[in-house]
Design goal:
By secondary structure, the protein is mainly alpha-helical. The chain has 14 helices and five strands.
Length: 370
């Protein structure tokens, strides 16, 4: 039975982590906003380059020479932003390491070890991203470099495509910039802006988690492992829904970000007591708005307290019906959502594993839920 002091330790660690996650989301927004300066430079460059002479008068060889020149100038701008982000990421990582040590020190009344700056720098650049998709396994520098090249090609390919379709320079500029009627949200640069936000948010989550884990490893005499903590709202990914509440030993489990734009975090499990003792709470955003729920509650246990319409919004109508009518506990349902490598299972895979759940819920794949 955890003592009052032990319960306070758990509650403090959870509260500090939760508050810090909110701060980290604000920091991400501020870092993303820095891209606006570079986006204006790109916009000005495209307009300046495409108001000289109509591309329709160019031969294909001359067009490629023109695009090669524009490509180089664009890449320079994108790289300049990536360099700023990379420098900021190091500062963020060092801050996160100190935060984790201070959090442990405050909650457990110890002098927690803070890893050397060189250790943190090495970790954030040598530990691969665990996001799903083509970016999984990339190192941080490669992740940022891949984005700069992709976005540069996105713009030059738009110009090349416009040339191939016989568009005027004005039409090509509009394709790149977007239209005033749509507040310039329908152009290629708007896509680039959204992708910049995704890359920055994911990179920050990666370095924050990596730095904090290095600090936990440096304090392994008092830290046993960590618990995955996902955001309790309708936007949470299937993968993070399933991972929420899972416990792992240090160095032996998945870490956020699990995907691009992942908001999940981790909370240390200490030797003093079990995490999430009686009385601890965590934030949630359900059907009736924000509130606090028992901290021991995982995503699917929390979701079971929400109305059917909210469940369908969060899971989709088929999984929502399976969740309500399949005859499984929220805990069992959660276990079935991920494979052994913590990757989301498709509905077909889910049916192979638990066909009776589909029968009980009256769900036939390919048919709309009743």
């Amino acid at each position: 039975m955890p003592t009052t002091n032990q319960a306070q330790t758990d509650s403090q660690l959870l509260e500090q982590t939760t508050r810090h996650s909110v701060m980290l989301e604000r920091l991400k927004a501020g870092e993303v906003k820095k891209f606006e300066k570079y986006l204006r430079q790109i916009d000005a460059l495209i307009r300046e380059q495409l108001t000289r002479k109509e591309l329709t008068t160019y031969s294909r060889d001359r067009l490629e020479q023109f695009l090669a020149r524009v490509d180089g100038m664009l890449l320079e701008i994108y790289k300049a932003f990536a360099d700023v982000v990379q420098a900021d990421l190091v500062d963020i990582a060092l801050y996160e390491s100190t935060f984790e040590a201070n959090s442990l020190s405050h909650a457990m009344s110890i002098d927690a070890v803070v890893p050397a700056n060189a250790v943190i720098r090495a970790a954030v650049f040598s530990y691969p991203l665990q996001v799903k998709g083509i970016d999984g396994g990339k190192l941080l520098k490669s992740f940022l470099a891949g984005w700069t090249r992709t976005e540069t090609m996105r713009v030059t390919n738009t110009i090349r495509l416009g040339f191939g379709q016989g568009q005027t320079n004005a039409q090509i500029i509009q394709a790149v910039r977007g239209t005033a009627a749509q507040n310039f949200t329908d152009g290629i640069l708007a896509v680039s802006n959204r992708n910049a936000a995704s890359v920055v948010q994911t990179a920050i989550q990666h370095v924050a988690t990596t730095a904090r884990m290095e600090t936990l490893k440096a304090n392994s005499d008092v830290v046993l492992g960590y618990r995955w903590l996902s955001t309790l709202d309708s936007k949470t990914s299937q993968q993070c829904k399933g991972l929420d509440g899972m416990r792992f030993e240090l160095g032996k489990g998945p870490l956020p970000p699990a995907h691009i734009n992942c908001r999940s975090t981790t909370v240390p499990i200490t030797r003093l007591s079990e995490m999430f003792s009686k009385g601890a709470t965590r934030a949630s955003v359900g059907n009736t708005g924000g509130g606090q729920v028992d901290a021991s509650m995982n995503y699917y246990e929390w979701l079971s307290t929400q109305p059917a319409s909210f469940q369908d919004h969060a899971l989709g109508p088929v999984r929502g019906k399976l969740f309500r009518d399949g005859g499984l506990t929220p805990e069992k349902f959660a276990i079935l959502q991920l494979d052994k490598r913590f990757k989301p299972l498709t509905l077909a895979q889910l049916k192979d594993l638990e066909p009776d759940m589909f029968t009980r819920a009256g769900v036939t794949l390919g048919a709309p839920p009743a």
